[in-house]
Amino acid sequence: MQLDPSEPRAHLTLCAAAASYDYDWKQAGEHYRMAFAGEAVPPEVRLRAALLYHFPRGRFADVVREFHIVLEQDPLNLLFRSVFSWMLASAGQAERAHRRGGEGFRDRRQPVDDALRSRLRLFIARKVQ
Q1: Which among 108, 49, 100, 102 is positioned nearest to 77, based on CA atoms?
Q2: What is the pLDDT of residues 56-75, one digit of tens each?
Q3: What is the pTM of this model?
Q4: Phi, psi of 102 (to 5 degrees)
Q5: In 21-113, which ranges are continuous DSSP H helix?
């Protein structure tokens, strides 16, 4: 397969495959760097990098940094906010996750799946206890 060297989505997919299936963090790192080499990195690439590259390695400061950029790029995306809240809660920052998740629900301007919202709140509530 031949990749467009400037396509960040393709490189991040290869980054995730190297990390998740091969446990080859060196190769994953090379594809990660190529995914972020361009000037415009789409928010979904940053989200996937946080979820599949930084989070499994315990690099929570990098996760938070990427999500701040993601939410600057697409502040009304409830999915991005929900995933960020879940990651914060999983990293032991349940109170912060609860605040961030609440921001997403208050600020929403798009339809929200009530079941998803309920599950996220239940997950965060369990982490807070």
Answers
A1: 108
A2: 888 988 988 999 899 899 88
A3: 0.70
A4: -65, -35
A5: 25-35, 43-49, 60-73, 78-90, 94-106
